Amino acid sequence: MSTAPSRAHPAHPAPVQTVPVGPVDSPPLDPEGSVLVVGASLAGLRAAEEVRRRGHRGPVVVVGDERHDPYDRPPLSKQVLAGSWDVERIRHHAPEALHELGIELRLGRTAVALDLDGRVVELDDGRRCAFDGLVVATGALPRRLPGTEGFAAVHVLRTLDDCLAVRRDLDAAGTGCRVVVVGSGFIGSEVASTAHALGARVTVVEALPTPLAGALGVEMGQACAGLHTDAGVDLRTGVGVDRILLAERSGAGPAGRSAGVSPVVVRLADGSTLDADVVVVGIGVTPATGWLEGSGLEVADGVRVTSRLFAAPGVVAAGDVARWPLASAGGEVRIEHWTNAAEGGVLAGRNLVVGSAAAEPYEPVPFFWSDQYGTKIQVVGRPDPNDEPVVVDGSVDDRRFVALYRRGDRVSAALGLSRPRQLMQFRPLVAGGASFDEALALARG
């Protein structure tokens, strides 16, 4: 078993040059018609809420494959994993709040097929859900290391159940827990940071020479990689995982380690090995579109939609699963961060109700953040690895700075480490496609 290089920044896959999705003529939704939202995470809930805000009176049903009431995902790799927040704190809404909006939740059910002509979605329990308007918000599924099926110590972290399983193993391993994180993207890095703060001995394995270089460029990727090494975390770059094996038990093991923990050995492609009580794999995700096979929707690394988020008449998509043309990116994009799910979900719900003729294009200014080792990383815009980063505030060595990205004569993005106020002043300039000289003048002022 060997791994492909992890995607440096799964929240920002590169723009794809394709033939645009053809125009979709979608009439306004019948105010008494039924709306079905497939996906009970952020994008789906925001879409359902917006449908109600637009005065829709017909049934609104949200189907989710998890058994938990809808919750926020970003804290899973941080506060919830650390144990500083309980599950109730990450709920999107109390169930009664959704009930008051007239939104019906059907949880623990997975969509398995879409009959577009019949306007029906089939669920895994055999139920067929009819709709007049459909929101596709099924998100994405984490990639797994081939050959690790059945290894209790090997985890991904995408859902609340994933988070609680990792935390149980960290607790069971006890003092000096050995954690190997495969992949140094934002989720993997946040897990590494949290585990380190809990007292674990952490090693991060990254197949690429520089973490996050594909998203932030080599120079800024190295700056973020320094957060790991500054904290004393063992960062192994330029090497993939060959295979994972069960470790041979001998004696009682390190002090404090539970007899119930089954350690493993992570063998790297260079022949070296790492002993681990817990392995967390963070090598990106794939959009959850398997249930749409043969449906007639156009699927290519996500559901392809128009600039107004229509995939077909009466069908919109939002969140991690949607791929749409973004003019500022120069092609189609699929973005996996929180703000895209929130903003895209709202617009998808609105456009579904009003119809394509009155629909607004989705032209967000991408924004995301990550918290690692006490440092807040924030990015506005879409950096390209070929853009030139220029530090305009603070110091890279101090891990407190703002860097602007130059693309030709324009500012394309801004990156900040522990500089939230200073960073956000550049957001209007990035949004407006300002010149780099204008951005520099603001920085110097």
How does this structure look, described?
The structure is a single chain. The protein has 445 residues and is an alpha/beta fold. The protein folds into three domains: 35-141 and 285-354, FAD/NAD(P)-binding domain (3-Layer(bba) Sandwich); 154-281, 3-Layer(bba) Sandwich (FAD/NAD(P)-binding domain); 367-444, Enolase-like, domain 1 (2-Layer Sandwich), CATH 3.30.390.30. Helices cover 23% and strands 28% of the residues. The protein has ten helices and 27 strands. It has helices at 42-53, 79-82, 95-100, 160-173, 186-197, 213-230, 338-354, 420-424, 427-431, 436-444, and strands at residues 35-38, 60-64, 103-107, 111-115, 120-123, 128-130, 133-136, 140-142, 154-156, 178-182, 201-206, 234-237, 241-246, 264-268, 273-276, 278-281, 285-287, 303-304, 310-312, 315-317, 322-326, 331-333, 367-372, 375-381, 388-395, 400-407, 410-417. Strands 3-2-1-7-20-19 form a six-stranded mixed beta sheet. A five-stranded parallel beta sheet has the order 9-16-10-11-12, covered by helices on one side. A five-stranded antiparallel beta sheet has the order 23-24-27-26-25, sandwiched between helices. Strand 21 (322-326) and strand 22 form a beta hairpin. Helix 1 (42-53) runs parallel beside helix 7 (338-354). The relative contact order is 0.17.
